[in-house]
Amino acid sequence: MATIFYEKDVDTGLIKSLKVAVIGYGSQGHAHALNLRDQEVEVRVALHPESKSRAKAEAEGLIVLTVPEATQWADVLMFCTPDVPMKGIYCEGVVDYLRPGQTLLFAHGFNVHYGLIAAPPIVNVAMVAPKGPGHRLRAEFLDGGGLFCLVAVQQDATGNAHDIALSYAWGIGCAKAGMLETTFKEETETDLFGEQVVLCGGMSSLIKAGFETLVEAGYQPEAAYFECLHETKLIVDLLYEGGLTYMRRAISDTAEWGDYTAGPKVIGESSRMAMKQLLREIQDGTFAQNWIAENEAGRPNMDRIREVERDHPIEQVGRELRAKMPFIKAK
Questions:
Q1: Model's pTM, two decimal places?
Q2: Is 230 known to be catalytic?
């Protein structure tokens, strides 16, 4: 059985007794820093001197330090930076300034799991990974709720690394929703798999394939857009609220029957084989190596594909339709 912790399991005073530095002020970093501040935790934001985020953090009343300054000041350092530059930030601004008993926290296990960051044994290494983007973490906190998170300890130098991780998770609002015990390996591999196979890669490709099939068959692109992209929100909201069974109770009997009969044909054995291959590449480090190499080369393939995808017909149609929908906030 999974081990899940809640507010009753947390020493909330622990994180309040420690000085916390959040490295990065992007999607995750801003939410962590602001939520901690609102929980009366002593917090600083760590950024490089030329960071464009400095003004945003300071406008919120937060104190901004350089990464070396923050490392020397803090008891707890939370890494909320993108995966690829994180190693450089650690090597240039953190490792040489560490002292015994500090805690390094990570919002994602990528760098630790794949050995890009190997902290000395004098510090704790743990993870608090909210299951959602930073703006949602902040919004749920402000509404009096929280996001579910994953918690793991890789290295326990002080004997209470787990307690610190739980207390930090409380500080950003996750204890109200729940904190699942996991490992760096499990979090990293399942997160990458979910993103590639279902949430981003799988869903994007499924939406485009459905749209293209309808348009090629002679149907209006606008009608195809509504059926294959626009209405996904309605289904995802139902899934989020109550799972597959709840969603199937809410849709028509015709749609439910189509779910049972057509779904396995679209996502059949060939798709499952592809999923297993992708999982193997995540597990053996192939994906991580390729992604790092892409970044070291200046992201030529990433930039090329990004431009192509922005001009996909479904995006062109979608921009025109959404402009006529005042109830949808432009993103």
A1: 0.93
A2: no
